[in-house]
Fold this protein.
Amino acid sequence: MAFSPEFIDQVRQASDIVQVVQASVPLKRAGAAWKGLCPFHTERTPSFNVLPAKQIFHCFGCGEGGDVFAFVQKRQKVDFVEALKQLAERAGIELPDERQDAGARQEQERRRAEEEALRRLLDLAGAWFRRNLEEGAEGAEAVAYAERRGLDAAARGRFELGYAPADGGALLSAAKKKGFSAGDLAAAGLVVQGERGAYARFRARLMFPIHDPKGRLAGFGGRVLGAGEPKYLNSPEGPLFSKGRLLYPWALAKPALGKRREALVVEGYMDAIACHQAGLEHAVATLGTALTEEHAKLLKRYVDRVVLVFDADAAGLRAARRAGEPLLAAGLEARVARLKGAKDPDELLRREGPAALEAAAAEARPLLEFCVQAGLAAAGERPSPTQRAAVLADSFPLLARLASSSEADAALSAAAAAVGVSPEAAREDFAAFRRGEGRRPAAVPVSAPAPEAAAAASAPEARPPEALLLVERELLALLVAHGELVEQAKEELGESLLCTPGLRAAAALLWRAPRGVVMLARDDGSEDFKAADALLSDLSQRRLSQLAPPQESLKDILLRRQELLLEKAVAERTLALRQAGTDQAATSALLKELQALKHAIHELRTERR
Ligand SMILES: [Zn+2]
C-alpha cells in the first residue's frame, strides 16, 4: 500500500519521538537531549540519546540512529509501512484506505472482478492440462516421464499434475470454445503474443499447479520433458502470481507445517515433491528465486524453525546466507542441513530413503555456525588473519538481523571464537558495521597479530576499500529498486569503475536492462551473468532507507563514494610517502598531491553538509 508524503508527514508531526521512545525505554533529561540505556545493544552506562529538537535518536555505543519511524522499525522489527501504521494508530490518525472515496472503492472492486476472471481461466487451464496428461500419445509420453521420476498415478493426482502439449495453439482453441479470448489468456500468463499471433507459453511440459497461501490456483510451473531449455518455466509475474510470495506445494504442506512447527525449505519443486512422497510433508520449495521477507513472514505464521536444505558447495553457502537474512529478520530459527553423498534431497531420498533426509534435518546446524564454518573451509587449510576477520565480517549482515541484542551478542562471541578473533575486536567491528562504515577490521586474531591491522592502526584516516564496497552495494540496491535512476547514475559515474569485478558485472547488467528492469535482461548462461544476477537479486531484497527521496539518496551515495575514493587515494599516497624514504623529489610530489586530495575532500564534505 502506498501512502502519500502528506500522510507520512502528518503521522510524523503527531509522533513526538521522546514520547514514542519513552513508551518502551526509560529516558532521563540531560540538557537538550534525553538519555537512556540503548535498547539495541547491551550497555551499563547510557549512550542512547534522543534529541527532541531534531526529532531523532542516536546511540554512541552501537551507532543506531534515525527518526521516529526508524526507531519503531528497529525496535519492533517491522517494515516502514507497519511502523507508519502503528504510529498512525497511536496518534489516532485514520489510515487513508479507511476513508477512501467511492472512486477508489470502485477501482478495488474492478480489480477484484478481474482477478476472479483470471482465476476462472486458470482453473479451466489446470483441468485442461490434467486431461492432456491422461489422454493421447503425447500424454502417455509425459506419464512415462513422470513415472521415471517416481511420480505414480497417486502422486500425479495428489499434486494435480498436468501436461501442456507441444502444439502452441491447442490451449487457445480450447479456451476460445469456453468464451475466453487470446487477450484473456495473455493476461493469465498462459499465452505469449508473438509476431505471428498468440501461442502457448507452456509447450511440451509437465505442468505443476502452484497455489497461493489461501489455497487458490495462482499459476503454473512447467518442466520440460527430457532435454531442453529452460528446464523449469513458471507463469510470469502478475496480479496472481508472484514468486516472492509463493511456496510450493503450500496447500499440501500447510497442515504438516503447523503440526511440526518446522519447515524444510528445498530448492525446486521436484525436491519438494520427493520429500512429500517420502512422508516429509513439511517440505516447501521456492520457485527458482531466493527466499524473500514475504516468504519468511508467511512461514513465521506456522513454524518456529526453518531448515534450509541446500548443497554444501559455495553456491549452497551463498543461497543459505541469502535465505538467512529474511528468516532471522522474521524471528525464525534458521538451520542448514548438509546432504552427504547426494547433490539434492531427491537423489538422497532415492538412494537412501526418508530416514537419511530426516537425519540430515535433525543434524542441521544453526545458520550462523554453518556460514562461519563454510567460510573458513573456503578460506583453505590455514586462513590468514585477514581472511579470518573477513569470514567473521561476512556474518555481520546475519547477526544484524537477530531479534535481540543479547542474542546477537552471544552469536557474535561464538562466531568470533570459531574464527579465532578476540571478542572485543569482534564487537568493535560489528559496531562499525552497524554504523554503516563496514570498516575492516580492527579484528586481530587472538593467536596471530596481523601486520595489516597494525599498519591500518597507524594511519587512522586511511579507510580500506570495504567502506567503498558497502557504498557501491548501496548504490546498486538503490538502482535495483529505482530503475528510473539508472540512466542518471550511469551518466554520473562516467568512466569511473566500481571497485570489484562482481559489482562491475552487476552494474553492466543493470545498464543493459531498460530502466533497470532486471528480469528483462537476457540470461547468456555464463557464470558472470549468474553471479551478477544473484548479486542484484540479493540487493533487491535489501531494505532501503525510506527517509530520503530516491533522487536525494542517489546524490548522497555518489558523494559518499567520491569521498571514499579520495580517501583511498590519500591512503595510497600516504603509504607511498612512507616508502619514498629520502627521495626528495618523490616526497615533494606526493606531498603536493596529498594537499590537493585533502582540499578536494574538504570541498566535498562542505557540499555534503
Ligand atoms: Zn546502542
Observations:
- The chain has 27 helices and 16 strands.
